[in-house]
Design a protein that fits this description.
204 residues; 4 helices
Length: 204
Amino acid sequence: MDNNLDIPGFRMDTVSECIEQEYPGHIFEHIQQPVSWARKYIIWEAHCLALAQRARLEVLPVEHALTLVGHTRRRLPHVEEKDLLQAYLDSVVIAKNLAQNRDRIPYPEERVDLLTHTYKDITGTCAHRRYFSTENGRLGVGPLDIKKGDKVCVLYGTRPVYILRETDVTGEWLLIGGAYVYGLMDLTETLKSARGANEVFTIV
C-alpha cells in the first residue's frame, strides 16, 4: 500500500520567477541591530518591487503592496486599498531613513496604527516565504523552495492555492506548499475561463 494521495483540482498558472532574497523578519526581532535590519529590508523590498514591475509592467502596481500584506477582503474591511498602499509606502520610507541613520519622520496619528498593522501583515505573509511572479502576470508569496516552472493549483476541499511540482512520473506531483496569490484567493471572483481543466493530482 502506498502513501500517495489523489486530490481533484485544476491548474491556474505557472511560476515564472522567484526572488532569491528571504524576508529579513520583523524589526522587533532585530531591535538590537535596527540599521542592519533596515538595510536588509530595503534590499529585499527592492528585489520584490523589481520583480513586480517586470511581471506587471507598471511603475508601482498596487497589487505588489497588497501581495506583501496578504490582503483579502476579509481583512480590515474598513480600510481601502489606497490606504494599504500608503502604509506600504510609509514602511519603505521609514526603513530607508533608518538604514541611513536619519531622524524618524513623524506620521499623522491616524496612519500610525495602520502602519504598525501593515508591518505585522508583511511579516505574517512573507516570513520564511519567497516572493514570486507567474506567467500570467500574477504576484504571490510561497514556500522557500518554490522555483520556476512550479504550478499554481487549486485543490478541491482545501485552502485556495497550492504550489505543486511535476515529478518524472506522469501524473505524480510533489506538494511544495500553500501560497498567497493576489487575485486568486477568492475563487468566486476568478473567471471560469481562467481555470484549467479538472484533473486528479497524485501527491507523492
